[in-house]
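Workshop exercise sheet. Pairs work together: one partner reads the sequence aloud, the other fills in the structure field after running the prediction. Swap roles for the next sheet.
Pair: D.N. / O.F.
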Amino acid sequence: MSTPDFEGVFPYLVSPVTPSGQINEPVLTRLCRDLIDAGVHGLTPLGSTGEFAYLTSRQRRRVVEIVLEAAGGRLPVIAGVASTTINDAVAQARDYQQLGCSGILAILESYFPLADGGVFDYFSAIAAAVNLPVVIYTNPNFQRSDLSLSAIDKLSRIDNISYIKDASSNTGRLLSIINLTQGRLKVFAASAHIPVCVMMIGGVGWMAGPACVAPRQSVELFELCHAQDWDRAMERQRALWSLNQVFAKYNLAACIKGGLELQGYPVGPPLAPQQPLSETGSAEVKAALEQIGAL
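Structure field:
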């Protein structure tokens, strides 16, 4: 099948929710438009930073609708699909395809651990339900059942499973995936990886929450990598890495939302029972943003 090529910087969008439980449409719309103006290559609602696990199905759908409207077809929107059941995940994927998404980010939630067979069944069912490119997502820090290399290899042979986003901190694993899948899967990094290193070994970009608060800096870094100007890319990367280090110390959604609040986006606190940044954490995020010129 013919699929669009995704590459570059795809910010994981926050989900701003009002005290009454409504998605804050004006704030989310403004954030999307500003990110587009900053040159990002796509938008990813309902990723980890989007707090998908804390939203109702109605809230999740509304987030996707708002992002699609704000994007206006100018760049791809890859919506996150996550569930503990295949039927629910398939229903979400079909709905987001009907709404007009360009791709699906497939995320596995589980309570009981799953063997490789169950993991394969989950992702393959999502892929079979849509005719969109599917990005499979692995995050061993949060997932009860991770994607093994053998499962990744098997999934890579499904036509529309075209990408993987790996949020481990093991860049060697990314090279193993690239070698194993032999071009069948393109690799996106996460903020846990050093993006320049991932691009050097054959990655196509990164999907990450920090790009929400540092979009221009992230796009500049990608463009330097794309041009293989590695010396200048590493110079920019060293400065940006301090932001990742701060975010690694605290709740990610709290960091991104706290950073956006500092930048003038009233996105609100992370959804309960998550806690907002402490005064110390907020000061560290502010200092990191000031250091890279994002505040």
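Discussion prompt: The mean pLDDT is 95. What would you look at next?
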